[in-house]
Structure formats: structure tokens, C-alpha cells
Amino acid sequence: MKIYIEGAGEVGSHLAKMLSEEGNEVTVIDDDVQRLEHLSSYADVQTVAGNPSSIKVLKDAGVARADLFIAVYPFTTQEVNIVGALLAKQIGAAKVVARINDEDFLTAENKLLFKEMGIELMFYPEKIAADEIVNALKHGSSEETMDFAHGKLQIAVFKLDEDSPLLDLKLVDFTKMMSAEEALQFRVIAISRGDQTIIPRFDTQFQFNDLVFTISKRDGLAPLIKYFGRRNIEISRVMILGGSPIAEMVARSLSRFMTDVKIIEEKRDRCVELSERLPDNVQVVNGDGRNSDLLVEESIRDYDAFVALTGNDEANVLSCVVAKRFGVPRTIAEVENIEYIRLAEDMGVDTVINKKLITASRIFKFTLSGRARFVRYMSGTNAELIEYTVAPGSAITKGPLRDIDFPRNAIIGGVIRGKDSFIAVGDTQIEAYDRVAIFALPETVRETDRFFK
Fold it and tell me: What is the per-residue pLDDT across 78-91, written as a single tens digit (0 to 9) for each?
């Protein structure tokens, strides 16, 4: 696939590297030569120096041949990305997507307007990150969660600590602990261990510090929590460190159903702004949240969750560690350096949010067949979670799962059929128009995709 990316900032560079490693032909356009040179030093991409909003630059770069054009120009107003995407579409790009920074553009009416103009997707990374955080706070029992089909199927991630009842058990022994009914309600779909992601087999053994990815029906989540030795934390009081745009969106959403939401922000002017813009039941405190004495003064021990969104990775991770020591049950940190994600998890941060990975999930879908409805990267693993709608006559429908030679490094976790949902097992027969949840390692994504065409 020929992919053109407008902008070699953090998001554009991450997308360029990721998409080129997937075997795509990637060209990056930017007017900052230093950014392009830095990208070329570690990614196998072509670069074009020039104004990404120039028709001549776009035409000379060959955008007319683009299968996908991604407008993510950094440090500028969203209009630059919108104009670049619209120009690319008119020049001949098959599909175009654009990064924005205005929540109003995401209303159903406005999204339809831009779609009619030719922009297939508009994404606001900060808003997506805020939604991820709010969703995580609604599920207090695991490190990371995700709902399929309004919760009919749920992905949950559990970290195995030294007290976990599953330590040293093999998967086959775990399955023997379940009742026949429970075995149909949930299953383990992947294990992240250090830098390795494992699609588990019956002889796979659980180890200390493993991140265990599971899929369950709605009724299966409670027994799953029990087996992992967890308790469901009821979160009603949340402290947020930092007054960033993400923090503002999180606080506004939480104010609708939390009893206590507090933001600690160092800049006084931003505090005034937040106080004026947020609902009255959100407290805004001016101070340095890295100071543990201030956190004690603000009664950190009484909060159920601590969310660090300062824009500084180190401050976010360390403040979450401090919050844990004060007894806060749930911590969430924004970590933009991908190299720090596993370190943050090893230091005890429950959930890590990374805007680049979230953005990549939304865009990667456009590089697959039209049957892929949704793609998501789960933090702590390099695998993709993909939701497909099954095409009539596709290879996945040709027999029970055990007989169709499905890629070894991919696993079908669950199926939604009409109003029903169920966990996939060996004798499951996939049918046309089923919605299927798949966990796949990067090297098998293309092969997996072919089963749904």
C-alpha cells in the first residue's frame, strides 16, 4: 500500500515507522528538514521536504497515487491538516484522514459534513486518550479494559503479582479449575512477558509480572476477577495531576458520575481557566503535585484513583508510584515515550496511556481489508486487537476453527452474532456477518486479514 504522511512530528514519525515495518511504501512530507533527517535515521521511508499544504508539493510527491493520506502536521492549527487532507483527496488520494484538535468537529453532523467532503476519518488523539482514561476508571478490577458491542464482550488485562493465585500454573491447569459453564464465559488470549507477546498454548505457564490478556462475556467478568485474585474497586473519587487538555476532558466526563474530582495544576493562569470552564463539582488546586506534602494536604489517601497527565513522562510515572505508596488503589499515567511503557508498568502503574499508540490503532484499520471494523493496540504488548465483520464466503467460514489452519500467532477470542455473544473454542463455526474479536501478533496480521476477505 502507498501511504503518504503529512508531518514528521511525534505522531507522524511513529505512524511512518510502524506502517513501513508492516510492508507499506511510506512517504513523509514536511517542511522541517531536521525532522525528516531524524526520521530517516531510524525508519525505512521516503521523505519530501516542502510545504505540505502546497498543491505543487503534493502533486510532485506523487500523492495522486496514494492509497492512504494521513495529515498529522505537528504544532499547528487543525486547519493545516484539514486543508492538506482535502487537497490530497482532490489530487487523487484514495482515502484521507486528518488529525484535529477541536471536539466540536467530532459531532455526528460535522463528521458527516467532512465525510461528504472526502475525509474518511478525523481523529483527536487527546480526546481519544481522555475517553480511554474514563473507560478505565469505570472498570476498577484490571489494568486495562475495552468493551465490544456495548459490553457484550470485554477485554481485560491482569498483571500477575507475587500474591497471584495463578503463579506457576499452566494454562491447562487453569482451565481445569473452571466449571464447564465458566469455560464458556471467558478465556486467556495472550500473555505479555517482558518484550515478548505470547499467544498461549495449553502448556504455557503463568509467571510473575506477566500481563495476561483475557476476553469474557459480560457474566464472565466476575468469576474472572475471582480467579485472578482481584477485587472490583468502586471508584468515586479521582485526583488528576496536571491541567492539560486531556485532564480537562477527563474531569468534565468524570464530573457527571463521580462524587469528587480534583485537578492539581502548577500554573495559576491555567487554574483560573479550568475553574471557569469546568463544572462546579470539579475542584481545581494551584500547586506543584510532585510535592508529596501538597498531596497529603489535599487528602490523597482518601482518593480511589490518581491520574497523572502533566505532559512529563517521568513526573507522571513517579507521581503514580508515590500515589500507590499513599494507598491509592488505582493509578493511570500518560506516557508518550514508548520505551518507558513497560518500565512504568514494572514500577506499579496500573494503566499506561500513550496517544501515539491510540492514534495508530485508529489509522491502522485503513491499511487492512474493508472487513476490519476496529483496531486497537493494547499497552504492554506489540499485538493488535482487531474486530472483523465476516464476509459471506470468506475463508474463516469454511469449517470449525480447529480445521481452518488459522495463523498460529493469532487467536479468535469471541464472536458476536446478532444479539448473542460467545467465547470462541475449537469447534466454533464462524458464520457470515459475525463480528469477531481477534488478537494477532504483527507478523500474522496480513495473513489473518486474508481469512476475512
Answer: 888 999 999 999 99
